[in-house]
């Protein structure tokens, strides 16, 4: 462990978001290492970690390995993997974790720790769609977790090199909602690294609100190959998405996360972003596993848990899952 808070930072998963965050943290003075493999590992060892931000290609040297044991105990581990990779992360992450190591989840969808310190009568519920055997929770205990929500669009330009498109906002918070010293120190670090960082009083609410938008547009884009402007520009598709969102809105209300907007309010925000490819569409085009369970299957599970019927979510899940299985992406 380093002498200063978060001096040693490991990025677990040097995809688009991981590379973007890692480059900025390294430039802010952190000692950054990366767990990566295959072509990404080779690129990191040869070129360092790279990200193009505002037309400038930034490059920082990092220690990279496929074996976390080579990197040692960290102050901060940023999980920037896609949800399907979590079981493998759980099997390998132990060498990175000391008693005080913080694990920041910078991922889409509902995380395995969602009901830790939250949820009233549902508190402590294990989500089978995310962590069916509890292996992730055992490998990464809740005491290590600070939750994160990323509001930024990045893509992979080539292995180990990301392209930042728009957005620079990070929301972080303790699962319990407490304003601890460690979370305040992390807000300070991320702000110094150039992120617009917000401390959340209840990070589960921010996770659910982001999910409310991307649990629909992401899988629909993967099914159709369409950019967001075309998806929401089709009235029939837009109306279907709204129906799914209304089901998720009711589920949220029953677990203590009321959403006071209507689907059309969220559509208007998304439309302002113009034509862009969702992360799930990028994954389909690249032949990578897709995050259906963390975005859609878990909502179906929460519907059953809370007694909310989910016929439209069921249709979205069925079609998305069938496509992913047919393409070998699930």
Q: What keyword list fits this structure?
A:
330 residues, alpha/beta, Rossmann fold, ten-stranded mixed β-sheet, 12 helices, 10 strands
Query: How many structural domains?
Result: 2
Helix content: 40-55%
Number of helices: 12
- Poorly predicted segments: none
Q: What average pLDDT do the residues reach?
A: 95
Biggest β-sheet strands, sense, barrel? 10 strands, mixed
**Radius of gyration, rounded?**
19 Å
Identify the overall geometry.
globular
Counting DSSP E segments of at least 2 residues, the number of strands comes to 10
Category by helix and strand content: alpha/beta
CA-CA gap between termini = 37 Å
Strand proportion = 15-25%
Kindly report the name of the CATH homologous superfamily of the largest domain: NAD(P)-binding Rossmann-like Domain
> What is the CATH T-level topology of the largest domain?
Rossmann fold
CATH architecture of the largest domain: 3-Layer(aba) Sandwich
Write down the secondary-structure element order. Answer: EHEHEEEEHEHEEHEHHHHHHH
Topology (SSEs and partners):
Blueprint lengths: L7 E5 L3 H12 L3 E5 L2 H10 L1 E5 L2 E5 L2 E3 L10 E4 L6 H7 L9 E5 L28 H5 L5 E14 L2 E13 L7 H12 L3 E4 L3 H22 L3 H6 L1 H20 L8 H9 L7 H8 L5 H15 L4 H16 L4
Parallel strand pairs: 1-2, 1-6, 2-5, 3-9, 6-7, 7-8, 9-10
Antiparallel strand pairs: 3-4, 8-9
Helix pairs in contact: 6-8, 6-10, 6-12, 8-11, 8-12, 11-12
3D architecture notes:
This protein is an alpha/beta fold and 330 residues long. It folds into 2 domains: 8-201, NAD(P)-binding Rossmann-like Domain (Rossmann fold), CATH 3.40.50.720; 206-326, N-(1-d-carboxylethyl)-l-norvaline Dehydrogenase, domain 2. It contains 12 helices and 10 strands. Strands 1, 2, 3, 4, 5, 6, 7, 8, 9 and 10 form a 10-stranded mixed sheet that branches. Helix 6 packs antiparallel against helix 8 (235-254), helix 6 crosses helix 10 (279-286) and helix 8 crosses helix 11 (292-306). The radius of gyration is 19 Å and the shape is globular.
């Amino acid at each position: 462990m380093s002498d200063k808070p978060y001096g040693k930072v490991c990025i677990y998963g040097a995809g688009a978001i991981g590379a973007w965050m890692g480059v900025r943290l390294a430039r802010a003075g952190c000692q950054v290492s990366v767990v990566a493999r295959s072509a990404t590992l080779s690129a990191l060892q040869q070129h360092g970690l790279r990200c193009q931000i505002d037309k400038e290609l930034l490059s920082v040297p990092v220690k990279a390995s496929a074996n976390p044991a080579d990197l040692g105990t960290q102050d901060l581990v940023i999980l920037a993997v896609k949800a399907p990779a979590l079981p493998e992360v759980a099997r390998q992450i132990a060498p990175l974790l000391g008693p005080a190591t913080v694990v920041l989840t910078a991922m889409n969808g509902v995380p395995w720790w969602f009901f830790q310190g939250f949820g009233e009568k549902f508190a402590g519920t294990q989500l089978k769609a995310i962590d069916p055997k509890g292996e992730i929770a055992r490998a990464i205990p809740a005491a290590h977790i600070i939750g994160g929500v990323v509001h930024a669009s990045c893509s992979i330009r080539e292995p180990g090199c990301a392209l930042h498109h728009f957005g620079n906002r990070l929301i972080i918070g303790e699962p319990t909602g407490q304003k601890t010293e460690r979370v305040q120190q992390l807000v300070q670090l991320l702000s110094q690294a150039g992120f617009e960082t917000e401390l959340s009083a209840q990070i589960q609410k921010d996770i659910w609100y982001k999910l409310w938008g991307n649990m629909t547009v992401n899988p629909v884009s993967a099914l159709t190959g369409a950019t967001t402007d075309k998806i929401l520009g089709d009235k029939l598709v837009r109306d279907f998405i709204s129906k799914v969102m209304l089901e998720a809105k009711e589920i949220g209300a029953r677990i203590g996360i009321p959403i006071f907007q209507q689907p059309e309010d969220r559509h208007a925000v998304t439309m302002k972003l113009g034509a862009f490819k969702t992360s799930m569409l990028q994954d389909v085009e690249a032949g990578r596993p897709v995050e259906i369970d963390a975005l859609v299957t878990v909502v179906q599970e929460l519907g059953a848990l809370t007694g909310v019927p989910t016929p439209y979510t069921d249709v979205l899940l069925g079609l998305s899952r069938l496509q992913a299985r047919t393409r070998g992406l699930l």
